[in-house]
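Bench notes, afternoon.
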Amino acid sequence: MDSNYTICIPKLFFDINCFGCGITRAIWYLLHFDIAKAVEYNSLVVVVFPIIACISIKWIISKNEIYDI
């Protein structure tokens, strides 16, 4: 997970980090309970992850209501 490969356009062309740089790695480390490393990659993970989790849970619940599971 710690490779230097990136597809971020600002990072590739201008060598600057955008707001989303590192968020995938940050979520990966957060899911593995390495909070310090997650915040090191992108501090917005403390905002983004709960939002993604809530949306995912809401989506799963809505899918289960359709099929009555």
